[in-house]
C-alpha cells in the first residue's frame, strides 16, 4: 500500500507524522505517583510519623532536665487511665449527648432547607454557614453572656423552676447554668451543629420529593413516610453528621474551659494541661493515644453497624 | 489502489481489543470507503463503541492497525488524527459558550481568525443567535447541533458519531436523522455512525455492519440486510422475523423444498446462508409484513405456488397503519403477521382459523445450529 | 383553635427548623450587640451602656491587630499549600488506578477522623523532639497538614463527577494533553478547587487547638481571644468578629447576585 501524503488535510492534523517508536506507557504509569508524592509525603511526615513518635513517647520516662528515654514504661498508661478515667467518661458522655442533641436540632433545619424553604433556601443556607466566619472562640464567649447568672435565660429558667429540676438531675448547680454540665453540652452542641446540618442536608437534598408523594399515595401517613422512607434514605447523612460531630466534640477542651468549671473538665483539657503546662509528655502522649484508639474503635464499630462504608 | 486527495476511507486490519480476559472486539477487518455513511449497529456491549474509539484514537487496539486514506494512524494520539467525534450526550464544554465550543478545535490548531468560520458554521446548523449562550441553556436538539458543528468545522476526513441521537425524543430524532443525512451529502465526508437503533441505522446509512459479541455478524446495504439476513441475530435484531425449524426434503431447480409446520415450504437456494444437505435442518425465516392472512373458509382462493401454513389467531392489536396478529400453529412457535389496514376482514378475530401465505421469494434460510432467539431481547437499550 | 393546631402540626418541621436557626444565629447577634457595649470591668459579658468606642478604634488593644494579620497571613499560605498539594492528590485518585490507592485513601481519611487534640499533641511532640523552634513555620506546616484532607475531599468529588468524555472531546479536537488540562480539566474542576480553598482558609483562620500546641509564643487571632478569655475580653474582639461575619455574608450575597445576573443574561 502506498503512503503518499495527502494535501488537503488540516494544517497540524495530517497523519503524515511518524508514530513515536516507544510508547510512553511507563512514564504514564508513574504520573499518579508524581502527583501524590508531595502531598502524601507531607501527611506521612507531619501526620503519620508524629503518631508513631507519640506512641514511643508514651512509653518513655525521664524529666525535662534530663531528657526522656524509651524504657517501655507501660505503667504510664495504667496510671493515666486510673487517674483520668472520669475525664474519659465525661468526654464520651458529653460528646454523645451533644451529638444526639445536634441530630435532634439539626434534622428539622436540614429538612426545612431541603424540602420546605423554597426560594428562601439560599438565604437559610447562608445563615447556617455564615456564623462559621466569626471565630468560634468569640461565639463561644458569647454563650457566657447568654447564660450569665443575671441574664434573661437563667432568669426565665429560674422563674419556671426548671433549674430546680435540672439541679436535682445533676446537670446544673444551684441557680446558675454557667460552670455546669448543661452549659458545656450546650456549647458543644452549638459549636458542632453545622457539621451535622450540612451532611444531613446533602443526603436529604438527593431524595426525590416525589418519593414522599408516592409513599402518601401508598397509604403512608406523614410520620410513617418519614420513618419508612425519608429517614432511611438520609442515613448516609446521619452517619456522616454524627461522626463529624462526635469526633471533634470528644476531643474538645474549649467549651469545657470557657463554659465549665473544674468539675466539667474533659480529656482534652487534661491532655492540653499535661502537655502545655505540666510538661509531662509521656502522660500526655499516653492519654491522647488512648483517646485516639477509643475513638477509632468506636467509629469503626459504628460504621460497620450502620452499614455505610462508602464514607471515605 | 487509487487515492482520493480528500480520501477518508478507513481500513481496519485485524483490529481487536481485550480488557484483561474480556474481549470487547475480536480481530476485525473492515473497509469503509471514502464519502460513505457507514453505521455500526448493535446492542450495548457489542464492541461497536470500542471500535469507534479505536478509530478516534481514544482507545489503543490490542492488535491490528487503523489506516486512514492509506496511512497507518494506529500510533497517533487522538489530537493528531484528522478525525472528529460527536460524542454520546455531546460532551459540550460546560464552561465555554457555544461560540468557544465550536471554535475549540480551530484554536487548538493555531488558526488565528476563527470568527468568520465559526459564524458560518453556526448558521449552517441554524444556531447563529445562540453563540454566546452556555450549553446548559440549549435544548437537547440544539446541543446536538452544536456537537456536530464543533466537529465539522475542523473539516475532518472522517466524522465519528457515537449514539449522537440517543438523548433525543422520538420526533426530534427523526428530524435530526434527516438533517445529519443532509449534512453528510452536502459536505461529502465519511460518516461512521454507532447506534443501537436499527431504524436509525437503516434510515441514514448506506452501509450497515451489524455487530454482536465483538464480531461483525453481517454487513451490507440496509435493504439487503433486512430482506436477506444471514444469521438469526441479524434476522431478529433488524426488525422482526418469524423463524421456523424445517427439514430439507428435496432440491428442485433453484428452489429447496422443505417440510415445516406440517406443510411444505419453498425457499430459493440463493437465499439460504446455511450449508444445504438433504435431510438436514434449517431455520426458515419470513418477515411479518410479507405474510398475507386468509380466513380458513377462503383457503381455496389462495393462489398456487405460495408458501402456506395454517393456524389460529390468538391475539390481534390495532396499531394504526397496520394490525398485528399473533398466530399459533401446531408445530412451530407463534408467528407474527402485520396486515396493512386497507380492507380489513371482519372475520379475522382471535379464535379464527386462518391460512398464512407468502411469496417463496421472501423466504430466507438460516443455519439451524444457531440460537433461534439471538437478538430478540436486545433491541431496546437503556440510554 | 383546631385550625391553629392543624397549622402548627403541618408546619412543625418549619417551626423546629427556625428554632434551630435562631439557636445558631443567637451568639452572632450577641457578638454584634456587645460590640457596642462599654463594659465596666475587664470582661465584656454584661451589658452596661451603648458606645461606639470599639468601632472607632478597632486596633486599640495591644497585639490584637498584629495577631489578626498573622492569622490572615498563615491562612493565605496554608490555603495555597493545601490547595496545590490536595488538588494534585485528588487528580491522582480520581483519574488513575494504582495499587497504593486504598492506603492513600485511608491516609487522607484518618486526619478527618482524628480528634484535633491528638494530632496537635503528636505533631508538637515531633517538633519538640527534633528541636524545631515553634512559631510561624510550625503553625503553617500543621495547618497545611489538616487542611489537605478537606481539599482532597472537595476536589476529588468534583473531578470524579466530571464526564471523562469532555477530556476526550478536547483531545479529539486537537488539544494536546497539556492543553486539555489547562483549557478543559482545570476550568471544570475550578468550583471544587475553590470550595476546597475556601474551606482551608476558614479552617486555618479559625483553628485554635492545633495552633495552641504548635505556636510556641506566637499569637494568632484565635489564641489572642483565648488568652483574653483569661485576662479580660476587650470589646474590639466583638468588633472584629462582627466585621468578619459582615464581610463573609457580603461576599456570599455578591456572589449570589452575580450568579443570578449571569443566569439571566
Automatic annotation (TrEMBL), chain A:
Residue ranges of the TM segments: 33-53, 92-115, 122-142, 178-201, 229-250, 284-303
Record's keyword terms, sorted: Cell membrane, Membrane, Transmembrane, Transmembrane helix, Transport
GO cellular component: plasma membrane
Pfam families: BPD_transp_1
Highest taxon listed in the record's lineage: Bacteria
Major localisation: membrane
Annotated GO biological process: transmembrane transport
Topology in membrane: Multi-pass membrane protein
Ranges where the ABC transmembrane type-1 domain occurs: 88-302
UniProt-annotated location(s): Cell membrane
UniProt-listed InterPro entries: MetI-like, MetI-like_sf
Similarity annotation: Belongs to the binding-protein-dependent transport system permease family. CysTW subfamily.
Name of this protein: ABC transporter permease
Biological classification of the source: Bacteria, Bacillati, Actinomycetota, Actinomycetes, Kitasatosporales
UniProtKB/TrEMBL annotation, chain B:
InterPro entries hit by this protein: AAA+_ATPase, ABC_SmlMolc_Importer, ABC_transporter-like_ATP-bd, ABC_transporter-like_CS, Mo/tungstate-bd_C_term_dom, P-loop_NTPase, PotA-like, PotA_ATP-bd
Span of domain ABC transporter: 10-238
CDD domains, sorted: ABC_PotA_N
Catalytic activity: ATP + H2O + polyamine-[polyamine-binding protein]Side 1 = ADP + phosphate + polyamineSide 2 + [polyamine-binding protein]Side 1
Gene3D superfamilies: 2.40.50.100, P-loop containing nucleotide triphosphate hydrolases
EC id: 7.6.2.11
Presence of keyword Repeat: no
GO molecular function: ABC-type putrescine transporter activity; ATP binding; ATP hydrolysis activity
UniProt keyword terms in alphabetical order: ATP-binding, Cell membrane, Membrane, Nucleotide-binding, Translocase, Transport
Superkingdom, taxonomy of origin: Bacteria
GO cellular component: ATP-binding cassette (ABC) transporter complex
Family: Belongs to the ABC transporter superfamily. Spermidine/putrescine importer (TC 3.A.1.11.1) family.
Function per UniProt: Part of the ABC transporter complex PotABCD involved in spermidine/putrescine import. Responsible for energy coupling to the transport system.
Subunit structure: The complex is composed of two ATP-binding proteins (PotA), two transmembrane proteins (PotB and PotC) and a solute-binding protein (PotD).
Protein name: Spermidine/putrescine import ATP-binding protein PotA
Organism: Streptomyces violaceusniger
Gene name as annotated: potA
TrEMBL record, chain C:
Record's keyword annotation contains Transmembrane: yes
Matches recorded under Pfam families: BPD_transp_1 (PF00528)
Ranges annotated as spanning the membrane: 12-36, 74-94, 106-128, 134-155, 184-205, 235-259
Gene Ontology cellular component annotations, sorted alphabetically: plasma membrane
SUPFAM superfamilies reported in the protein's UniProt record: MetI-like
Chief location: membrane
Record keyword DNA damage present: no
Annotated compartments: Cell membrane
Membrane topology: Multi-pass membrane protein
Domain ABC transmembrane type-1: start-end pairs: 68-258
One GO BP annotation of this record: transmembrane transport
Record keywords: Cell membrane, Membrane, Transmembrane, Transmembrane helix, Transport
Family: Belongs to the binding-protein-dependent transport system permease family. CysTW subfamily.
Name of the protein this chain belongs to: ABC transporter permease
